[in-house]
Structure formats: structure tokens, C-alpha cells
Amino acid sequence: MTLESVQKHNVVNVIYEQMKKNIQDGVWEPGCKLPSESELTQTFNVSRVSVRSAVQKLRDLGVVITHQGKGTYVTREIARYGAFSDNQPILHLSQEEFDDMRVFRQTVEFRCMDLAVEKATDEDIRQLEQALNRMLVSKDDYKKYSQADYDFHLAIVKASHNKVFIHVMESLKNIYIHYLEELNRVLGITLESVEAHIKVFMALKNRDATTASETLNNAMAHNVDAITEVKLTEK
Asked: What is the tally of structural domains in the chain?
């Protein structure tokens, strides 16, 4: 393993490039656990902050994944793609997973929007607006944006006042957030996405189920096209 001591101005990029090279050269193979943060700090002769920032860059590209309490690993998906581009993140969401979530949303969320138009209280609308506001202030952080995104859609389900739908939505929290994080990380947080959520909120506030459903359906159709394009670039 070749890791050079780093003493340069832009240390984060230097560390990132060296770590990326180890992955591309097969020094760190798919499924391999990376050296610990303290080991990387000593090897590169840099601060923990610099190491964390470099690892985060790899994580944002989907090249490595961190399991809490276990460490950071090279994702097995990288074996299918070989060299990776800094501008083309890997989507860690299979076509089947994406399709299953889309069908779930069309089945549950669309019905919940119909119910929300009938049953939403002023407090329900306020919770929906608060989640939307958190999305708007988190546009530069896809993880925070995705959490707020989930809260937004959970607020819609809660506004239906159907206990079964609410329980199902809450039980799928981790899966749902992972789905949103992958979409927002790879496709980016677009103006179209933000505007669609605002439009859904206004439609529900105005008790317009048709516009709310049409807006969400169009946004999901756009995601289908975008995911298809990403999958084509991965082949």
C-alpha cells in the first residue's frame, strides 16, 4: 500500500486523490475496510478533520460507505464500474428497489393526499409547512434535505389521520430516507424538486387533491427518466 505523507496547502484534495487512487488501483478492493481514522491521520500526517473531509468526498460519490461502529468500506458496486468519475456518483439503489418504492408511494401517498384534503387540521398544515421550510434551508446538504423531505411526506400521511398508513410510513422510515438520500445525492437537489414540493404543499393547503396528486406524479415520472439516464451511464 502506497500512502504518502501529506504536507501541502490543499490537504483534503491530496488525501482524497491518494485514497481514490488506492481504490482504483485495487489496493483497497470492493468490500475492503479502510484504515481507521486514526491510522489515516498518522499515515498522512494530517488532522482528523482533513481525513474526515476526504472520506466524506468519497462517501458522497457512493464509493465508500460507513457503517456506524464498524468502519468505512469500499462499496462492492465499484467492481461493476471500474474507474469512477468525480462528477458521476454511483446510485446505490437497484431498479427493483426504486420501482417498489415508486409503487408504494403511488398506492399510499396518493390516497393519503385525498384523505388529507378531507381531514387535515390547521396543525397538520403547519407541520407540513415546517417540514417544507426545513427542506428549503437545507438545499446545500442532501442528507438534511432528505430527512426534511421524509418529514414532509410523513406529514402528508399523518394528515390523513389513518393510523394504519401512519404506522406503515413510520416503520419504513430508514428505507424511505435511504431512498430519498440516494435520489438527492445522485440526481441533485434541483429547482424542479423544490418547486414541486411547494406546489404540493399549496395544493393541500387549498384542499386541491387533484393538483397535489398530479404534481407528485409528474415529479416521480421525472425521477424515473433521470434514474434511467443514470443507469445507462453506469453500463
From this structure: 2
d(CA 146, CA 138): 9
Would you say 216 and 113 are in contact if contact means Cβ atoms under 8 Å apart?
Answer: yes
- Cα separation of 89 and 104, whole Å? 25
| Total residues belonging to the chain | 235
Q: Which of 18-32, 97-111, 133-147, 153-167 has the highest mean pLDDT?
A: 153-167
pLDDT in tens, 45-96: 888 888 988 888 888 777 888 877 788 988 866 655 455 666 555 566 677 8
DSSP 162: -
DSSP SS3 for 188: coil
Same domain, 56 and 141: no
Least confident of 146-160, 181-195, 218-232: 218-232
Q: Flag whether the pTM goes above 0.70.
A: no
Report the distance separating Cα 81 and Cα 190, nearest Å. 26
The DSSP annotation for 174-187 comes to HHHHHHHHHHHHHH
CATH number, domain of 115, equals 1.20.120.530
In terms of DSSP H, where are the helices of the chain?
Answer: 11-24, 37-44, 48-60, 78-81, 95-104, 110-119, 122-136, 142-159, 163-171, 173-187, 191-205, 209-234
Q: What is the mean pLDDT of residues 96-120?
A: 93
Bridge partners (DSSP) of residue 66 are: 72
Query: Distance between CA 2 and CA 21 in Å, rounded?
Result: 10
Q: Are residues 27 and 143 in the same domain?
A: no
Q: Are residues 38 and 103 located together in one domain of the fold? A: no
Write out the three cell numbers for 197.
414540493
